[in-house]
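Memo to structure team: turn this sequence into structure tokens by end of day. - J.P.
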Amino acid sequence: STQSTGDIVATAIVRLSGAHAPNDSPSGLVDGDFSTIETMKNIKVMLFVVFYTFTVSLVVMPAVGVAINPKAEYFGILIITMYNAGDTCGRLLTFVHKIWIPERYLPYAALARTLLLPLFFICAKPKLIPGNIFPMFLMFFTGISNGFVGTLSMIYAPSSLDTEQEKNISGNIMSFGLLLGCSIGSGIGLILSAFVFNA
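Reply from structure team:
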């Protein structure tokens, strides 16, 4: 039977991770493939959250952030340091359970981070917000929100699953989404830096 795009992606993930069982199913997929497809469907919202969170972050860090003041060598180092410091703080904040964003609202938090993009853009070109202080604080907030939202999505994803096998598979799927977000975000950031901001 014809596979959907989601089934094809899920099958590719399980093949790459090697997390499949030896028994063949009637459709030609192994049992582990079916398990991965079902797991992917169950965590699709958190998969989107981690993918989109890291996509937004890597669009601005480091390419667009450095483009704000490309002539100052120290600025690029400070921008990257601010992001990494914020990201670490965001991850540590998840130890405080009282401030967790409820799972049903986490996708909205990820989407709200889209507002970071135009703020960085107007800092880089046409520099409607002059100076270096605001971009640094903005990058620090980008890091905090990335670490906090991204970590929560990784925590929530397996919490809705029943078996240990599904939870283990969800880790592979979420890692795939994270890395895909990093790759796409970095690519977009480099294109913007080269052709829009001319950094």
